[in-house]
Design a protein that fits this description.
The protein contains 8 helices and 8 strands, in the order E-H-E-H-E-H-E-H-E-H-E-H-E-E-H-H. It is of the alpha/beta class. It starts with a strand and ends with a helix.
Length: 226
């Protein structure tokens, strides 16, 4: 016999809490262990009951669903969170997913869809309402593309700096320092010059090197070249 799935409901709307409680009562495999009205109470009940699933409203008082989700996941790591919201915009969805929610359902989802989401989430399978799946996939694809572009830009940075290091460091030119009272040369300032077009100033090269962990190596190479 399959283990009973213990469920916590967190929503500030009494009608929603009651509807979800009634739904859980009709399903033999589910057990309602508590109902919360705000984010703080949701976290407290999660600590007290260690539910398998917490159904969390996105916009409830006390910090909202994101806060409740983070607190629940921190204090009861085995509890999986299903976000339930009237808001289907991808910004809200992604905020909840980043907070640690495993599933996201739009209010008005059918009883069957909610039950399927509970069972899928218990098994470690994410679930999204059909109304938001396409937008979320598009956004995640965009994020992956931006991450890949950033990673490629960093690879190019590392390659440029490595090439300079392999050549012994930047080229160096010397600028004389004069004593203006008698025009004597009292010293020379060593200035780093880097290859590439369009030309980039040394401060940008050293900033790039710092960003990829190569600043010290580049500075030592510049000193040696000087």
């Amino acid at each position: 016999m399959a283990a009973t799935i213990r469920v916590l409901i967190a929503d500030d709307e009494p009608s929603v809490r009651e509807a979800l409680a009634d739904l859980i009562a009709t399903e033999p495999s589910l057990e309602l262990v508590g109902m919360a009205e705000d984010a703080g109470q949701a976290a407290e009940l999660a600590v007290a009951h260690r539910p398998d699933i917490a159904i969390v409203d996105v916009k409830m008082p006390g910090g909202g669903g994101p806060r409740a989700t983070r607190d629940i996941r921190r204090t009861s790591p085995r509890t999986k969170v299903i976000a339930l919201s009237a808001y289907g915009d991808r910004g809200t969805v992604l905020e909840m997913l980043r907070a640690g929610a495993s599933a996201y359902l739009v209010k008005g989802s059918s009883a069957d869809e909610i039950l399927v989401a509970i069972h899928r989430t218990t098994l470690g399978q994410g679930s999204l309402s059909a109304e938001i799946t396409g937008e979320v996939i598009d956004e995640l694809a965009g994020q992956l593309e931006r991450q890949e572009q950033a990673a490629e830009a960093q690879r190019r940075q590392v390659q440029r700096i490595r090439e300079v290091l392999q050549e012994g460091g930047p080229a160096v030119v010397f600028q004389s320092i004069f004593n203006l009272t008698n025009d004597d040369v009292v010293g020379r300032e060593a200035l780093s010059r880097f290859p590439g077009h369009p030309a980039r100033t040394p401060d940008l090269w050293f900033a790039d090197a710092a960003a990829v962990g190569l600043r010290v190596e580049l500075e030592i190479a510049a000193v040696r070249a000087a």
